[in-house]
Structure formats: structure tokens, C-alpha cells
Design a protein that fits this description.
heterodimer; A: alpha/beta; ten-stranded mixed beta sheet; 15 strands; 29% helix; B: alpha+beta; eight-stranded mixed beta sheet; 31% helix; 26% strand; globular
Chain lengths: 371, 218
């Protein structure tokens, strides 16, 4: 029996993202043009290595500096939500990431500069951001690999639903470093090939990207609603999903029930790995028959713990502007006929399903609809 | 007010125990061969959490400030020949996942927290807001080596796990409540929270700006 979705409906009062293309509008436009932010980049930064597909912010090197090079671009993105009004009991902040300041930890280990250590742990990285933005101290920190952002959204939604907050800010940031690029390269997931999400080809591969985003959640303000959210954790294997796709189905089932009668399209996780892509595309086709499926990591790379929020901003932009980008970087044949390779009109749809997956067989999904 | 009742408590206070000794002490709690690949924190958390028998319908909340410090140290040390095993093991929330994957125990909701001044408050908040009938709240730390003096790893080790339900029962051990307190400011460190649980001591005080925590024992 399917579990009910977490149906605390909240509104999306504001949402924006930062990618190598720029903000949400610039990124959405670049995706519509089919542009790819990923570029061949030495996997270990200044120490070299294979040239793997990475999407770094303009002028940002893979090796970390002190203070981190990502801090100013992040502060610029978050300027609309800076100030002491955030981070109070009634206006809490949820920060999510899978990387936080691990690039600084890597720089500390490789170069020995103690200044890097000051923001190398998750909580000290967030403290650096908190001080830069002038937030109060009511800041929660979640980290669950590539579904991290979804947890921030769900926790914030529950605070609102319980009347424990008036509005909540969810912030997610993940900036690449040799630590994470080297790790995925060691797992042989990140190699010299560019990702082609949902494409049925001989070998899979991913790309990685810098990404950050924020969302302001409220009970009654905003033109979109998070109508339902769902989680499922397989605990089958650290880096593989159950081969029968049961984890994907378990995550989608509550949302399929919540979405009954609505016409949806699906923004999938779609990193470019073969098995997960095949399982996800099949599960989407079964749970949401006829719904177009797109993934944007073939252009942006995988923004890791922030992908759920970065891509939520792009989904909202797609619904608002009337056009969703296609699956950039992929070509036929695809795992299912539902994979949309080209941009398509969103006017006839009631909303979109946004899905993310992570190590440990973690699944998260949400239903974004017009309020 | 957010409230739940404590049905079970497990703690592990291993002091300065080294990983090899932990592996030997706790190996009977895990599948044969599994402990060889587990971290010390994974053993600590997996040990106390396993006694509560997590199930598909439970919600799981996991709190740690530093996580897999020794795996992180080992992975950083492995460059430029990055270790794939240490990479996946160092990723948060591996400490809670290791035992669950070993036992093949899926859970619907899993909220791993990654530190901060309000770590305890947020973890309790997440546990009390979860709609599941039973919530398992666990956490802990392992002692780091070269990352600890740099402030990126814990100096001490401990682990805890609580089973929380919505309703009081004959077996209820205590009560956990979060109450809005607008003028309140304060924090409760994870190690101090652990000590409250280990010693079954009550607490009534600020744990985050605007939030007061009450821990009562029956």
C-alpha cells in the first residue's frame, strides 16, 4: 500500500538559483537554447588528472581559496533574503548541501594553510554564510547527499504547517572541489564522457556542476504551491538502487495519488548513469503515464545536494514562462518514449513533478503546481 | 507545543576506544563480515539504532556535528589516488546508513542533520514534526585524529538512539516537548544532550532562539 504524501501544502513565494549561466532566467534561457555549461576540466584542479565534465561558475577555479571564491556569488544570489529578519524563530532558515566547505578541508590538507580549516566543516561553512548574510541564529542544517535540498523544503513545510513559523527560507549551495570531483572519478561515475541523461547508450557518465538556490516558503503568498512531497530510503546499497526499481516506485506512488486528475510533466534526476536512468524513466512511465520526462544535468552537471532546489527554480520558471527546456545533451534512443529531448510548451499542464535521488537509495520528490 | 513520548533509549559511551576495539566489541550486532567495512561511527550508531529495530514506517532523524571524521581524514589522505571506498563512506549520513544497509532496512523518511549551534533543537524539532507514528532519533560522534585540532572533527565519541511515539503507553520512559518561547536564546550541545540521555537527567531550558526544550523522565 502506498504511503500518503506529506501533504502540507505551502506556497513558493520566491525562488531563484545560481548556475554557471547565471540566475534562473539566464539559466532557463541557456537551457532552452540547448547550451551546455559543462566543460572538460582537470579532475584534480591544479594537480591535473583526467579532463572531466565540470560546470564551474565563471572565473572560479576548482581549487578553493580563502575566503572561498563561491562566497561572493552566493551572497549576490541571496541578497534578496539577506538581513536579520531571517534566522529568527518565526522566520527560520534551513541550509542544505552535500559539500558545504569540503573544498576548504581539501585545501587545508593539501596546502596546510590553517585559514582554510576555519570553514571546512559543515557548520562552520554555514556560519560563514550566516554572518555574510546577516541572518539570526535560527538556522537548521540538513545534509543527505543529493536529496539534501528536498529535506530542507520538507522540514520548512512542516514548520509552516504546524504554525511554528510564519515563513521559512530554504538555501542550498554546492560548489565543486577536487574532493568531490576526485571522489566521483574514483567511483568511475565521472569520466571523460559527457552525460546524456536517459539516453540508451553503451556506457553511462555524469558531469558535476556548481549550483546554489533559495526558496521562500509561506502559507499564503506566491503563485506556485508545493502540493505534495515524498521521501523513500531503500537502504539497499551505498551506490546502487534495488534492481527492480522498487525504490523509485515507492517514492512516486504517494505523489501519483496526490496528482490524480492533474496533467503533469516530470523533471527527473537524470544524472547520466545508465542503470539509475533506466530505472527512473521506467518508474516515471508507470506512475505518470504520458508525462514528458526531462533532465537538465546534461548541461548543468549534477549540482549534488542542491540539485533539488536549483532545478525547482528552473521548473517554476518553465511553468511561468510557458516553455520547459528539453533534455540537453541527450539523443535518441532513450529509455522510454516519454523522454523529451526538445523544449516543450507547459501551458497545458497543471504542474510538474520534481525528483531527486542520492547515495543509499534515497529518493525525494515533490509536486509543484499553480497555487 | 510539539510533544512525543520516549519509549526506548539506548546510549553508547565508548570513551577513548579505538576502532579495532569497537569492531570487536560490537561485531555480534551486525551481519558476519559487515563490520570490516564499517566506520567507528557507523558501528556506534548502528549498534544503538539496531536495538530499536527500525522499520519501513518509522521516521528516522540523525544528528551529528562532524560525521565520518576518520573516513574523511582517510579520503583526504588518499589523494591524488582518491579512494572510492573512503569517498562513499565519508559522505553524510553514512554513519546511520551503514547499519541500515547492512540489515537491508528501508525507511520512508530520513532526516540527517549536519551540525550547527541548533543541532539538538533542529533534530528534536524534525522528530516531533514527523507524521510517522514512531520516530527514531539517533546520533553521535567518533573521535577524529588530525582533523580534530583543526576544529573539523570531534574530540570525543558517543552515540544515542531514542524511540518516540505520539501516545503515552504503560512502557513510556519519558516525554520530550518543544515549546515556543519568544524571548529565549540558548543552545544545547550534542554531547550535553547525549549526557542527559545516558544519565536519564531531566532538562528544561532554551535550545535555540525562540525554543524551549523539556525532557522529563517517568
Amino acid at each position: 500500500m502506498a504511503h500518503p504524501a506529506a501533504n502540507s501544502v505551502v506556497r513558493l513565494a520566491a525562488c531563484d538559483c545560481l548556475t554557471p549561466f547565471g540566475d534562473t532566467a539566464a539559466t532557463h534561457a541557456a537551457l532552452l537554447r540547448g547550451e551546455r555549461a559543462l566543460q572538460p576540466t582537470p579532475v584534480l584542479g591544479r594537480e591535473g588528472g583526467d579532463a572531466v565534465p565540470l560546470a564551474l561558475l565563471p572565473s572560479r577555479a576548482l581549487d578553493e581559496t580563502c575566503p572561498p571564491t563561491w562566497l561572493q556569488p552566493l551572497a549576490t544570489l541571496l541578497a534578496p533574503v539577506a538581513g536579520s529578519g531571517w534566522g529568527t524563530a518565526r522566520r527560520p532558515v534551513c541550509v542544505t548541501s552535500s559539500n558545504f566547505g569540503v573544498g576548504s578541508a581539501y585545501a587545508f590538507r593539501r596546502g596546510g594553510e590553517s585559514a582554510h580549516a576555519a570553514h571546512g566543516a559543515p557548520h562552520t561553512s554555514v556560519e560563514l554564510v550566516r554572518r555574510a548574510l546577516g541572518w539570526g541564529e535560527n538556522v537548521a542544517i540538513f545534509s543527505h547527499a543529493c536529496v539534501s535540498a528536498h529535506l530542507g523544503l520538507m522540514h520548512a513545510s512542516r514548520l509552516l504547517a504546524a504554525g511554528a513559523a510564519d515563513e521559512a527560507l530554504v538555501v542550498s549551495y554546492d560548489f565543486l572541489s577536487p574532493f568531490v570531483a576526485g571522489g566521483f572519478h574514483a567511483l568511475k561515475i565521472l569520466n571523460v564522457d559527457f552525460p546524456a541523461p536517459y539516453q540508451d547508450r553503451a556506457a553511462g557518465s555524469i558531469g558535476l556542476g556548481d549550483g546554489a538556490a533559495y526558496a521562500v516558503l509561506t502559507r499564503d503568498r506566491g503563485d506556485f504551491a508545493l502540493a505534495a512531497q515524498s521521501l523513500h530510503n531503500e537502504m539497499y546499497h551505498f551506490t546502487a538502487n534495488k534492481p527492480d526499481g522498487a525504490g523509485f516506485a515507492a517514492a512516486f506512488a504517494p505523489l501519483a495519488a496526490a496528482a490524480a486528475g492533474r496533467k503533469l510533466w516530470v523533471k527527473g534526476h537524470g544524472t547520466g548513469t545508465l542503470e539509475a536512468g533506466r530505472l527512473e524513466a521506467t518508474a516515471v512511465a508507470q506512475a505518470f503515464p504520458g508525462a514528458p520526462l526531462v533532465g537538465w544535468k546534461g548541461s548543468l552537471g549534477h549540482t549534488l545536494g542542491s540539485c533539488g532546489l536549483v532545478e525547482l527554480a528552473l521548473v517554476a520558471a518553465s511553468l511561468r514562462t510557458g516553455t520547459a527546456p528539453g533534455t540537453v545533451g541527450s539523443a535518441s534512443p532513450t529509455f522510454t518514449d516519454a523522454v523529451a529531448l526538445a523544449p516543450f510548451a507547459t501551458a497545458g499542464f497543471d504542474g510538474a513533478l520534481c525528483a531527486s535521488n542520492a547515495f543509499g537509495g534515497a529518493h525525494a520528490a515533490l509536486l509543484l503546481s499553480h497555487a | 507545543m510539539l510533544e512525543r513520548f520516549i519509549q526506548a533509549v539506548r546510549t553508547d559511551d565508548p570513551g577513548a576506544e579505538e576502532p579495532a576495539a569497537t569492531r570487536e566489541r560490537l561485531k555480534s550486532r551486525f551481519a558476519p563480515g559487515a563490520v570490516r567495512r564499517m566506520t567507528q561511527l557507523g558501528l556506534f550508531v548502528g549498534g544503538v539504532l539496531g536495538e530499536l529495530q527500525p522499520g519501513e514506517d518509522d521516521a528516522l532523524v540523525y544528528a551529528t556535528q562532524y560525521g565520518e571524521s576518520r573516513a574523511l581524514e582517510g579520503f583526504l589522505d588518499s589523494f591524488p589516488s582518491a579512494s572510492p571506498t573512503l569517498f562513499q563512506t565519508s559522505i553524510h549520513p553514512s554513519g546511520a546508513q551503514q547499519g541500515l544497509i547492512g540489515r537491508q532496512r528501508s525507511v520512508r523518511e530520513f532526516f540527517p542533520l549536519a551540525g550547527g549551534r541548533n543541532l539538538v533543537a533542529t533534530a528534536v524539532q524534525a522528530a516531533l514534526l514527523a507524521p510517522a507514528e514512531r520516530v527514531l532519533l539517533c546520533g553521535g560522534e567518533e573521535r577524529g585524529t588530525w582533523l580534530a585540532p583543526a576544529g573539523m572533527a570531534s574530540n570525543r565519541a558517543f552515540a544515542f538512539a531514542l524511540a518516540l511515539t505520539r501516545a503515552r503507553s504503560a512502557d513510556t520512559l519519558g516525554r520530550l516537548a518543544l515549546v515556543p518561547a519568544p524571548e529565549t536564546a540558548g543552545a544545547l550541545a550534542l554531547a550535553d544532550w547525549f549526557a542527559l540521555l545516558r544519565d536519564r537527567r531531566p532538562f528544561d531550558g532554551a535550545v535555540a532562539p525562540g525554543w524551549r526544550l523539556t525532557l522529563d523522565w517517568s
